[in-house]
């Protein structure tokens, strides 16, 4: 079984699911400028977010430190 790692984001009345691994839009919609900002944010933190996702899936506590 393949588990697709993804993150959800919301802005105003928009909501989207985005792949952690690729930054691809998996569902929903965001304005292009916001989607670009989310992809840039994700690219800077991809390994940390992927680690947190693995911890969540394993039922362990997690956190992402804000910079």
The backbone outline, from C-alpha atoms, is elongated
Name the helix and strand elements from N-terminus to C-terminus, one letter apiece. Answer: EEEH
Number of helices: 1
Q: What is the spatial order of strands in the main beta sheet? A: 1-2-3
Counting DSSP E segments of at least 2 residues, the number of strands comes to: 3
Average pLDDT metric = 80
Counting structural domains, the number is 1
Distance between the termini: 35 Å
Multimer state: single chain
Q: Which regions have little confidence, pLDDT < 50, spanning 5+ residues?
A: none
Structural class determined from secondary elements? alpha+beta
Strand percentage lies at 25-35%
Amount of helix: 25-40%
The Cα radius of gyration reads 12 Å
Largest sheet: 3 strands, antiparallel
Write a short abstract of this structure.
The protein is an alpha+beta fold. Helices cover 39% and strands 25% of the residues. A hairpin with a 2-residue loop joins strand 1 (6-11) and strand 2 (14-19).
């Amino acid at each position: 079984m393949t588990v697709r790692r993804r993150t959800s984001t919301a802005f105003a009345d928009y909501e989207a699911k985005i792949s952690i691994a690729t930054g691809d839009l998996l569902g929903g919609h965001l304005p292009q400028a916001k989607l670009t900002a989310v992809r840039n944010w994700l690219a800077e933190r991809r390994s940390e977010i992927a680690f947190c996702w693995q911890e969540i899936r394993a039922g362990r506590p997690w956190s992402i430190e804000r910079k």
